[in-house]
Amino acid sequence: MSEPHSNRIEELLPSYALGALDGSDLRELEEHLEAGCPECRRQLDLWNRDLEALAESAPPVEPSEMARVRVLRVAGGSRPRGVPRWVYPAIAALLLISVGSGIGLWRLRGEVRSLAAERDRLERQVAALDREARLARDEARRAAQALQVVAAPGARTVVLAGLKPAPGSAGRTYVDPQTGDALFYAFGLPDLPQDKTYQLWFIAGGKPVSAGTFSVNERGGGSLRVDRIKDVGGIQAWAVTVEPQGGVPQPTGEMVLKG
Description:
alpha+beta, 8-stranded antiparallel β-sheet, rod-shaped
């Protein structure tokens, strides 16, 4: 005859669900279940579902050698003498708590990594937007300065024609006679070796004066702003030559533009 339902029988259910029950306790509980106790069957089903859910949601972890030995010892041995029955339900409860805590910690670490990655992405995006904003402000400032020169009252325009080394090129210089500021644009100039640069000159009193160096983009376009020229009225011509990188005090290379 099977053991009637009792608290002691219920205490055996977690160990049975974990496969940690043996000996007379195992036989006693199985006889009780076979007798059809509905309450024990219901609780056992709950234990089995909880353990299955935990097993499916927990990340795979390689057990340590010590844990492997302990599991094999439990699976192959019997309950040590002197260990009370209530210990096994307590172990089962602790196992569920530890597994649940491990899953929560694993999920929390995943969320932290995800948030850190999102933070880094947003920081990169903000940095890129800052660079774009700085470039836009610089471009707007240059455009405003150019407009001041081009639209200044009495502004003069000097057209520079392409010479033999670059016959398809052209240039324009806009000069504000009141401030002495000048704005130069080049078009269609060929690309230069890394050790060469274009240098702009203005001729005043029969002598060339350097107005600065500039590079060109893939379309051969370049620009240069010249501030506060002392004697704008004395300028006789503008020219562009090819010079060593960094520029020179007096022109030494081929002249590509003149006007």
